[in-house]
Amino acid sequence: MLFRPKYTIDTIYNLKTEKLVQMGIKAVFSDLDNTLLAWNKFETAKEMDRFNQKLAKAGIKLVVISNNNAERVGKVLDPYGIEFVAKSKKPLPFAIIREVEELGLKKDEVMMVGDQLITDMQAGNLAGVKTVLVKPLVETDKWNTRINRFFEKIIFLFLNLKRRIKFEENLRNG
Description:
InterPro entries: HAD-like_sf, HAD-SF_hydro_IA, HAD-SF_hydro_IIIA, HAD_2, HAD_sf, PGPP1/Gep4
CATH architecture: 3-Layer(aba) Sandwich
Helix content: 25-40%
Strand content: 5-15%
Organism: Lactobacillus gigeriorum DSM 23908 = CRBIP 24.85
GO molecular function: phosphatidylglycerophosphatase activity
Keywords: Hydrolase
CATH superfamily: HAD superfamily/HAD-like
EC number: 3.1.3.-
């Protein structure tokens, strides 16, 4: 289904590198705001940096796929050397598809992680990569994200009618 994630976990920081390697994952594509970094708290960047180092040590590349502009994303990620695609136009899948091709990977070697059904999960599903929905790092959102959250509540209702979405502590086979 277009909006249904393949996996659901509490936070991206619960992704275990051993599990990702076992699954054949070579790249984790991630949304930025409220997925890797609280949109309003830049001090959470240290945890993001540790996560990136852990992935790199396991041979897994972290790439941020964000709808934000390059100035905003670069300001946060450049000090940590994390690659990114800005103005990705999610829910369109083109930035994800292009990045998969540029890295020379197969779609089943890539995982898209995000906190929004309408942008992150839809883009990842349309691109044909594995998708992981996480809970937002903070309860508040920027004004433009609040609009998406309103519609997400309706989508969650329909998704839960077929098969309940339950956030796990760790990644499980789905």
